[in-house]
Design goal:
heterodimer; A: 399 residues; alpha/beta; seven-stranded mixed β-sheet; 13 strands; globular; B: 393 residues; two-stranded parallel ribbon; 16 helices; aminotransferase (chain B); NHTrfase_class1_PyrdxlP-BS (chain B); Aminotransferase_I/II_large (chain B)
């Protein structure tokens, strides 16, 4: 069977000649290899050579230089919230850890005390772990909001807005900041504006999951547009950030929960309660990954190098998208394939149905999710033709 | 507004103090005789090996680095352990001791339906209570520390444990009890095991100081191994923060001893389901360093020497503190300082005396009178003895 993404490498049947692993949740080079970012290699060497460094405990909330820089990346250098001193940061174990700490806080302190009945809305579909995070944090009423329109292969904006209109006031909405997982379909800026307007009117709480900043479009600012827009509209919000993909630091578990509050006093209160939650979960976060990110983000030269590395990854994905689409269109594969290039980020919802997916796996040894989700990073110039032909076969042979 | 964390808050107050004679006897991190953090040589060597190998950064499995978890189990159980050799255990990587404890607490809350009660020794590490509480369990206590003698209240402990409702959960510190430094002797452990077995209790061992207590990893794990040999299927949390100095790298492990390898597989699958919504998969760096040390014969030998070195320095500071107190002219009995073991010492000082040590002498410790002996050096042991004498005479 297929291993869930992000849990380790799925096993490829031995001796199978042509295979394509399209269900990993990690970047791959055009040679199909993992890629340690050059800037990361450089900074790791700097850290290794620095004999003044030790392995002492970090503070409970994490490495200060990491926290400040990580939140600055999400919110922008000129963020009004930063200027007004009303942001807080919690270094966390990856994006998952940031989500979990945020969820635990909201369950204890949001919308009353220990109000486990506050509805939590997760997009349909979403990353499958979102549900478990909020369930395990104690929430009892987890709902979905309309998101993916399978018929038109795009965003079901009206369904989404309707769900927000009907949601009880103060409900929590998990929003993907960019590069929606698994559909790759993001609202346009105009659509985000409509979403924000409803959320403001209905007093809904935005909890952003930002796992792909920079990785989606190649531009950090562009990929953070939605989060920053909400901040400029005066929202209090959480943003769970992951540096797994955009720094390629998957196994060092580098994440950050950015808190945007009404005022500085509120931030301090929130952080003091976050400390208590962190203390009983992991006490204090791991040091290595945070050091790498902090060092990179606080040096103008290394920061520029990093942005270049991120753009390299994003550009390769964008290239694979356009190459796959043009092959399918040249083959005359039934259906429309513009969604392949309109979608963004690591994942694409191809629109293949479960039977077609089964054909891809069993007959063509191309491994993708039953939902039809593929990881564009698994595509290479060498396997593009094979994958395109296989999709063509699947769609024409199987209905 | 949440109150400052009692333990880590001490370090933060210490940092703000400008007195040149200040001493941080709060948080439990080892210091060398110059009062500096100590990065073990075997750790530096392991790091050099890692740097030269240029490995990728792909996600670990949810349960962690396999070479690390297997070596952790072997370290705790002993290579000749029947439980280890038969594979009737599961070990998952955890975020140091806290994270491993929390995995176990969550696991018990979800699957141990016989009881919601966790019995802690009185006193226990301050963070035990909120960890179990946040996991959804209830806290109870059994007598442990006798403040009159500053040693183990063994009859009190046995009496209380004999009355614990069957199938409750009992937490035991494997060695170097935190905060008191008071450990049972082996004959006492044997009686505890018999009692715990009689009451059919679920035993949760917290082992954060293997090697660090006596200087001998096998001696420090003796109680854990004895209990398992008596047929008690314990659960266990391990930390490498102190014994390998890997504090900020968060290397730890959680182990469940099972009836057989099949049960171990089932338990493992449930542990993964608990871990994934917490942080998906654990951080690699610390576990990889620990794994290289444990699995490379030369480095493992070097580690055993270094951990004994740390333990020996602690023991020597205890001895010097007592002799300095005598020199100051203190008439109190300070024998408990050398009877106790491990990083911490329950001095017997009262909150008002601790307050004076902080305010008048810039000597920082937790209100319960616990000192971290690791913060004592040959350079400041005299000052410490002097200050303690001033507030207790």
């Amino acid at each position: 069977g297929q291993a869930p993404p992000g849990t380790g490498r799925p096993s490829v049947p031995p001796g199978v000649g042509r295979t394509a692993l399209l269900l990993l949740a990690a970047y791959r080079t055009d040679e199909g290899q993992p890629w340690v970012l050059p800037v990361v290699k450089k900074v790791e060497q700097m850290i290794a050579n620095d004999n003044s460094l030790n392995h002492e405990y970090l503070p409970i909330l994490g490495l200060p230089e990491f926290r400040a820089n990580a939140s600055r990346i999400a919110l922008g250098d000129d963020s009004p919230a930063i200027k007004e001193n009303r942001i807080g940061s919690v270094q966390s174990l990856g994006g998952t850890g940031a989500l979990r700490i945020g969820a635990e806080f909201l369950r204890r302190w949001y919308n009353g005390n220990n109000n486990t009945a506050t509805p939590v809305y997760i997009s349909a579909p979403s990353w499958e772990n979102h549900n478990s995070v909020f369930v395990d944090a104690g929430f009892k009423d987890i709902r979905t909001y309309h998101y993916w329109d399978a018929a038109k292969r795009g965003l079901d904006l009206q369904g989404l807005l309707d769900d927000m209109e009907k949601a009880p006031e103060f409900s929590i909405f998990i929003l993907h900041a960019c590069a929606h997982n698994p559909t790759g379909t993001d609202p346009t800026p105009d659509q985000w504006k409509q979403i924000a307007a409803v959320m403001k009117r209905r007093f809904l709480f935005p909890f952003f999951d930002s796992a792909y900043q920079g990785f989606a479009s190649g531009s950090l600012d562009k990929d953070a547009w939605a989060v920053r827009y909400f901040v400029s509209e005066g929202f209090e919000l959480f943003c769970a950030q992951s540096f797994s993909k955009n720094f390629g630091l998957y196994n060092e578990r580098v994440g950050n929960l950015t808190v945007v509050a009404k005022d500085a006093d509120n931030v301090q209160r929130v952080l003091s309660q976050m400390e208590k939650i962190v203390r009983t979960t992991w006490s204090n976060p791991p040091s290595q990954g945070a050091r790498i990110v902090a060092t990179t983000l606080s040096s103008p030269q290394l920061f520029a190098e990093w942005k270049g590395n991120v753009k390299t990854m994003a550009d390769r994905v964008l290239l694979m998208r356009s190459e796959l689409r043009s092959r399918l269109e040249s083959l005359g594969t039934p259906g429309t394939w513009n969604h392949i290039t309109e979608q963004i980020g690591m994942f694409s919802f191809t629109g293949l149905n479960p039977k077609q997916v089964e054909y891809m796996i069993k007959e063509k040894h191309i491994y993708l999710m039953a939902s039809g989700r593929i990881n564009m990073c698994g595509l290479t110039t060498k396997n593009l033709d094979y994958v395109a032909k296989s999709i063509h076969e699947a769609v024409t042979k199987i209905q | 507004m949440g109150p400052p964390d009692p333990i880590l808050g001490v370090t933060e107050a210490f940092k703000r103090d400008t007195n040149s004679k200040k001493m941080n006897l709060g948080v439990g991190a080892y210091r060398d005789d110059n009062g500096k953090p100590y990065v073990l040589n075997c750790v530096r060597k392991a790091e050099a090996m890692i740097a030269s190998k240029k490995m990728d950064k792909e996600y670990l499995p949810i349960g962690g680095l396999a070479d690390f978890t297997r070596a952790s189990a072997e370290l705790a159980l002993g290579e000749n352990s029947e439980a280890f050799k038969s594979g009737r255990y599961v070990t998952v990587q955890g975020i140091s001791g806290t994270g491993s404890l929390r995995i176990g607490a969550n696991f018990l809350q979800r699957f141990f339906k016989s009881s919601r009660d966790v019995y802690l020794p009185k006193p226990s590490w301050g963070n035990h209570t909120p960890i179990f509480r946040d996991a959804g369990l209830q806290l109870q206590a059994y007598r442990y520390y006798d403040p009159k003698t500053c040693s183990l209240d063994f009859s009190g402990a046995m009496d209380d444990i004999s009355k614990i409702p069957e199938k409750s959960i009992i937490l035991l510190h494997a060695c170097a009890h935190n905060p008191t430094g008071v450990d049972p002797r082996q004959e006492q452990w044997k009686e505890l095991a018999a009692m715990v077995k009689k009451r059919n209790l679920l035993v949760y061992f917290d082992m954060a100081y293997q090697g660090f207590a006596s200087g001998d990893i096998n001696r420090d794990a003796w109680a854990v191994r004895y209990f398992i040999e008596q047929g008690i299927n314990v659960i266990l949390s391990q930390s490498y923060a102190k014994n390998m100095g890997l504090y900020g790298e968060r290397a730890g492990a959680f182990t469940v001893i099972c009836s057989d390898a099949e049960e171990a597989k089932r338990v493992e699958s449930q542990l993964k389901i608990l871990i994934r919504p917490m942080y998906s998969n654990p951080p690699l760096n610390g576990a990889r360093i620990a794994s290289i040390i444990l699995n490379t014969p030369d480095l493992r030998k070097e580690w055993l020497v270094e951990v004994k070195g740390m333990a020996d320095r602690i023991i020597s500071m205890r001895t010097q503190l007592v002799s300095n107190l005598k020199k100051e002219g203190s008439s109190h009995n300070w024998q408990h300082i050398t009877d106790q073991i491990g990083m911490f010492c329950f001095t017997g000082l009262k909150p008002e005396q601790v307050e004076r040590l902080i305010k008048e002498f810039s000597i920082y410790m937790t209100k319960d009178g616990r000192i971290s002996v690791a913060g004592v050096t040959s350079g400041n042991v005299g000052y410490l003895a002097h200050a303690i004498h001033q507030v207790t005479k």
